[in-house]
């Protein structure tokens, strides 16, 4: 008889807490981006991207920062008014979350 092992790769979990939809953010103001990360991704570095309503990345807010589960972001004046979402992703693997709903950026 032959033996075999079944293994499962445990992926981690990231959940954006804020801004997660319906907020209004104003340019030249500071906001805290926060997320939950489970034990499997706590030691991974994080990328945060701003995405337009059509799903395109319009700005990499930060890259390869320690996973502190928050990042303070000053909304740049050169970002046009509109609807946006955030994407927070772990550098290792395909562990990612996106805002549940769009938020607005205004001048």
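Sequence proposed for the structure above (107 residues):
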């Amino acid at each position: 008889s032959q033996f075999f092992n079944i293994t499962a790769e445990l992926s981690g979990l990231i959940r954006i807490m804020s801004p997660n939809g319906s907020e209004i953010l104003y340019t030249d103001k500071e906001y805290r981006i926060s997320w939950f990360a489970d034990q499997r991704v706590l030691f991974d570095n994080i990328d945060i991207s701003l995405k337009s309503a059509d799903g395109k990345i319009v700005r990499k807010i930060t890259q390869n920062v320690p996973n502190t589960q928050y990042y303070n972001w000053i909304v740049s004046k050169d970002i046009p008014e509109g609807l946006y979402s955030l994407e927070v992703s772990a550098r290792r693997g395909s562990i990612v979350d996106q805002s549940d709903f769009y938020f607005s950026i205004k001048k």
